[in-house]
């Protein structure tokens, strides 16, 4: 009886082991090659899974073991980089710069995949130093166009209930105040004009930086490239008119019962849920939010909404971000380069439509006519992004040594416009201007210290006297 129990236990252990191997994606077929793949973008998970299934059906000799990274994704990347254990293919390791990964010889260049002929199929702007390329070599296959901005989503049900036509959607700050106060008054305080996910400081950073460029366009809009650097003075510039006036305007919206006070506690998903539930007429979020609003599993599954440009002080132009920072990278330690090439070539041919367009979260990095969009508002989102994605100077192309400089500079900053706004809205900060002054002093100190450390970087590397704001910048 005891021997029989041992035999049953042994069989169970073998069965569990086989199931574990299957669940991990490992193939027991010696004729199959398994490629490991880390996905860092949850909004693409479903589409990647479907795409991989189709790929494996057409390439039965290759199996893709995909893992979508969760909250510990950054730690996984850091450990893998430290131990040279990156997977065969992975979505951008955003814990360090592309230059740093190349310097450590951790990345395989993609020149055999993105040939000159293939390269011409993409928008020229996606081939950007330290994001997709290092010199003449390509190290990242861009997943999207890089055009990214905060947009204003509007709830059509709320607008209709309070007699506001789509032609009356605010484009200026004064109009935003007027319409928002009208909605609040008509609803007896039950509905606000605007909701934000201000608990996410990075999203508030994007919102402020973007709005501020309408007033002070010489300060770079990106929170990923040159945070608060003025391309006319060549210095950090937190205390500029754009930042000051934008933060004060958002505070005025809250004081005037236009901005929901709960916004300071809301993250993206909570703000989206309340917007869809009719708690506000308008909602500020990135271009990816449309796919979340429509999603009935990961979002509210709400359809009756529209999208408009961000309102600005005078209703005029602003800068959107234009950085191709998300893509597919390949480990230099891969033992299956031939199979990796097969996967990447298949992705170039099919993935931009089946994954990127189908997700509705991003615009593809090449011209693809989308006659059957994933949802009605998809093309409008991309149209607005395109209107405000205007080429700005690239410090990395002017001097590649600024790549490490910027990484160290941004790593030394403890302040952000988003955190200052959060403190101001919550009453923890009484004087936003004074906080911006503190941020300015810190940023200038960090900037100057790095200038001393980087012998090949000068302040002139951050000055572009030939740049005319709101005109596409070119070195030609």
UniProtKB/TrEMBL annotation:
Pfam families: SBP_bac_1. Residues 1-20 form the signal peptide. The keyword Chaperone does not apply. Residues 429-456 form a coiled coil. InterPro entries: Bact_solute-bd_prot1 (IPR050490), SBP (IPR006059). Keywords: Coiled coil, Signal. This is Extracellular solute-binding protein. It comes from Gracilibacillus salinarum.
